[in-house]
Amino acid sequence: MNLNLHLTDNTRLRAHGYVAGGQLVAEVCWDVPVPGSRLGEGTLWGNPAMLRQLAELATQAAIQAEEEAAWQAHTANLAAKKGRVA
Q1: Range of the domain at 78
Q2: Are residues 36 and 5 in the same domain?
Q3: What pLDDT score does 29 carry?
Q4: Could you tell me if residue 17 is inside a domain?
Q5: What's the whole-model pTM score?
Q6: Could you give the CA distance from residue 68 to residue 49 in angstroms, rounded to a whole number?
Q7: Is the Cβ–Cβ distance between 52 and 45 less than 8 Å?
Q8: Listing from the earlier edge strand, what are the strands of the sheet with 41-46?
Q9: Using CB atoms within 10 A as the burial measure, which of 6, 13, 39, 75 is most buried?
Q10: For residue 16, which of 41, 40, 39, 45 has the smallest C-alpha distance?
């Protein structure tokens, strides 16, 4: 399976959980409210354990991205201070 999803601040997310055919199903739905967008809406579903694992990985990626941005800002700040001192 290949999943390419670009989430923005305008993406509306919804979550549902239910029983279908005797199986637990966890579902995340989204809408992309961008006029003229081909993306529209979508659904990602699976068993609860897999969606929990996906959520943990997404959280880990978000934390790493924030840490990288902080490191880049810190490094740029140090470089700017060195440039002023020299």
Answers
A1: 59-86
A2: yes
A3: 92
A4: yes
A5: 0.73
A6: 29
A7: no
A8: 12-20, 23-31, 41-46
A9: 39
A10: 45
